[in-house]
Amino acid sequence: MIRLFFLVFLIAPLIGCDNPKNNSKLDESYKTIFNSILDNHNVKGSILIYDPQKKTYYSNDFDWANTGFLPASTFKIPNAIIALETSTISSDGTVIKWDGKKRAFESWEKDLTFREAFQASCVPCFQEIARNIGVENMKNYLNKLRYPTMDVRVETLDNFWLYGDSRITQMQQIDFLQRFYTKKLPILTSTRDKMLKLFEIEKTTDYTLSGKTGWSYNEKDNNGWLVGFYEKGKRVYYFALNVIPKDINHMEQFAPSRLKAIREALHQMQLL
Fold first, then answer.
1. What is the pLDDT of residue 71?
2. Which residues, 6+ apart, have CB-to-CB distance to 130 below 8 Å?
3. Number of structural domains, the chain?
């Protein structure tokens, strides 16, 4: 009996419990490592990595991973998809004109291609795109794509992902990314191909790292995202990080901490 109890205690963190949505396992065996990574970057929150080959989610905090937050600029993913599907934008080279007004960052104060606007996370550019898509198209496509709980109204059309009641969880982010990657979204192949180019953060002979950051300001705290996927050979892994800073007086490392933390987590899992 003692030996059996010890065996159950030993393997319990590895087995976790079933996720009823896709019969995947929830694994906390990297909890200490992921927490240490976040601590080293002076943030707290959750790292969530999904291995579809093993049908296993890995996280340090599954409660956090199932908590909804504003999508912030991670919403540029569905926003870009809808823009391409509705022909609001024709290609990654489509130029979005600067209106000459002062913007939050100097890098936004110029004409930008669609690809440049996505990678620079140009908020005014994608607000213009959302207005051009329109309320009905936006709502219809979000329903079609099963992108959850966005508060799309005339009054919120160009900011519902930045302020207000829209919410998405890390689990939902990964679900959406997996459906995109595995061609289960009802979108054109050409749209998917264009999006894959927009996503790309780093490409080497060994792997490709793709994703999108996000940062909202009107939660209880500053809230930061990085969502995406990592391809190595024929394998793909999905990730969603959501964090808040521990010390708002030292925010200079908050933005870069998101990508650094995900890279370190993948490395600790011997994936990167």
1. 97
2. 79, 138, 157, 158
3. 1
pLDDT tens digits for range 198-235: 999 999 999 999 999 999 986 567 999 999 999 999 99
Q: Would you state the structure tokens that stand for residue 15, as one six-digit string?
A: 């087995």
Q: Is residue 209 part of a domain?
A: yes
Q: Does some domain include residue 98?
A: yes
Q: Kindly report the pTM of this predicted structure.
A: 0.90
pLDDT score, position 219: 54
User: Tell me, what's the pLDDT at 9?
Assistant: 34
Supply the range of the domain harboring residue 106: 20-268
pLDDT of 10 > 50? The answer is no
| Full strand arrangement of the beta sheet holding 200-203 | 17-19, 24-27, 56-59, 43-51, 235-245, 223-232, 207-216, 200-203
d(CA 208, CA 203): 4
Tokens describing residue 126 = 């994608």
Q: What's the pLDDT at 249?
A: 82
Task: Answer whether 91's CB lies under 8 Å from 191's CB.
Answer: no
Residue 205 phi/psi, 5-degree rounding, is -70, -20
- Asked if residue 80 is part of any domain, the answer here is yes
Sign of the four-CA dihedral 222, 142, 211, 89: negative
User: Tokens 């936006």 belong to which residue?
Assistant: 138
CB atoms within 10 A of CB 126: 23
Enzyme catalytic residues? 73
Assigned domain for 134 exists: yes
Kindly give, in sequence order, each residue whose CB lies less than 8 Å from that of residue 259, ignoring residues fewer than 6 positions away: 201, 211, 213, 226
**Dist. CA 233–CA 205, nearest whole Å:** 10
Residue 16: pLDDT above 60?
no
Question: What CATH number should be reported for the domain holding residue 138?
Answer: 3.40.710.10
Identify the CA nearest to 160 among candidates 254, 78, 47, 263: 78
